[in-house]
Design goal:
Elements (H helix, E strand, L loop, with lengths): L1 E8 L6 H11 L5 E8 L6 H9 L5 E5 L5 H11 L4 E4 L8 H13 L4 E5 L7 E2 L3 H18 L11 E4 H7 L9 H11 L4 E5 L2 E2 L10 H25 L1
Parallel strand pairs: 1-2, 1-4, 2-3, 5-8, 6-9
Antiparallel strand pairs: 4-7, 5-7
Length: 239
């Protein structure tokens, strides 16, 4: 198995040690895996915890982001990665690591560019999703789904797996916050890369505080959606 796990971190000192221990146990399943943490200008001691932990774990790598923001953090992670497939994983451990095994089997077996997970399938299990966030999520994601006439319904989900070569073709990224997680699947679908959709599980974080701010992100999501739709029109006109 040739997998790079990219984990951007920002002020997760109350969560990160728990996540590191859980990831270290999970690593035994993969023969070839690197876990890449991107320090997105942490100010609370998160970087120190990772450094101390990685001293005895040669599969853990840590890089400091050059420009603050999730988009640039993920872009740096892609650049620093060395394996064939890349999965973006959030440090709060809200996603299910067992789904990562399913992701890897599917993308490698079918030679796909991406596997896009959905938390909103009848086969998915969700725990403690905030009600307001859930309602806004479903409104926006179904709106995007209708515009693209797509069967995918969880564009804003962060947890997906990609072929590294494909992500390099999608760069540079234009999104600098959580809207990067909208940009990536939009580009995959609009540019007609090979992908599949699969149900995944999700549970709300039990440690630390979420950095997701609905009011601050609404305009960013609309910017990313507009940018990608414009790209779709331009690509269509080239034909």
């Amino acid at each position: 198995m040739s997998l790079s796990l990219i984990i951007p971190v920002y002020n997760e000192v109350n969560q990160i040690e728990f996540s590191l221990k859980k990831l270290a146990k999970f690593k035994k399943i993969f023969k070839k895996i690197e876990i890449i943490f991107i320090n997105d200008f942490c100010t609370d001691g998160t970087e120190k915890v990772i450094k101390n932990f990685k001293k005895n774990k040669n599969f853990i790598k840590l890089f400091n982001n050059k420009k603050k923001g999730l988009g640039s953090a993920i872009e740096l992670g892609v650049e620093k990665s060395t394996n064939e497939y890349i999965c973006i994983f959030m440090s709060d451990m809200s996603d299910d690591l067992t789904d990562l095994k399913k992701y890897y089997r599917r993308i490698s077996k079918n030679n796909l560019d991406a596997v896009l997970g959905t938390r909103f399938s009848r086969l998915s299990k969700i725990k403690n999703y905030p009600k307001i966030k859930f309602i806004l999520n479903r409104i926006f994601n179904n709106f995007v789904r209708l515009i693209l006439w797509s069967n995918y319904n969880d564009f804003t989900n962060a947890f997906k797996i990609y072929k590294r070569k494909t992500l390099l073709k999608l760069m540079p990224f234009v999104s600098e916050n959580f809207n990067i997680f909208l940009e990536l699947p939009l580009k995959i679908i609009i540019r007609k890369y090979n992908y599949q959709i699969t149900p995944i599980n999700w549970r709300n974080r039990s440690r630390g505080k979420s950095k997701f701010k609905i009011k601050e992100l609404s305009s960013m999501y609309l910017f990313t959606l507009s940018y990608c739709l414009l790209e779709k029109i331009l690509l269509k006109n080239k034909k």
